[in-house]
Amino acid sequence: MTIYDFIVQDKDGKKVSLSEYKGKTVLIINTATTCGFTPQYANLQDLYSRYQDKGFVILDFPCDQFGHQAPGSDNEIHQFCTSRFGIKFPMFHKIEVNGENEEPLFKYLKSQKGFKGFDMNNTLAKAIAFQLKLKDPDYEKNADIKWNFTKFLIDKTGTVVERYEPTASMEKLEDDIKQIL
């Protein structure tokens, strides 16, 4: 099984087979518009602009599961992202990434690459870890998505290569993208 076996909905509600992205390096992210990590959109658009001609694409899945930080409709989220950050990469229907209503794609992604921990050098990492530990002292032991802007890097064969927590450095992400392009 690869990501190409999944069908998702785009921001307009149309079904999209991820097989459309065969042969590309893909970054799949769950995002939010009012999160401390929302400024990452600027870095992500920069990566997309620099590498899209080399076969790189970002697939953006808004998610409102973490602190209700992705309010609004798919269209409102799209308008925010395009007007504020100039986002040009594909945006999809708002989804859930954990729990009984989780998007099957994300269930698959988590089964391929589990949680490896936060980069505690990031200023938001300690606060997120503290909140998570209050809810579940063993949160580090499961593969659930922990917060907005978790990213999965997929190679040209549809294989999940790496998972990046929202606290991971963009430099590390870019280095890995360049290696598999």
From TrEMBL:
Keyword Membrane: no
Species: Treponema bryantii
Record keywords, A-Z: Oxidoreductase, Peroxidase
Active site: 35
Protein name: Glutathione peroxidase
Family per similarity comment: Belongs to the glutathione peroxidase family.
Lineage, highest ranks first: Bacteria, Pseudomonadati, Spirochaetota, Spirochaetia, Spirochaetales
Start and end residues of each Thioredoxin domain: 1-181
GO biological process: cellular response to oxidative stress
Gene3D superfamilies, alphabetized: Glutaredoxin
InterPro entries: Glutathione_peroxidase, GPX_AS, Thioredoxin-like_sf, Thioredoxin_domain
Molecular function terms from GO: peroxidase activity
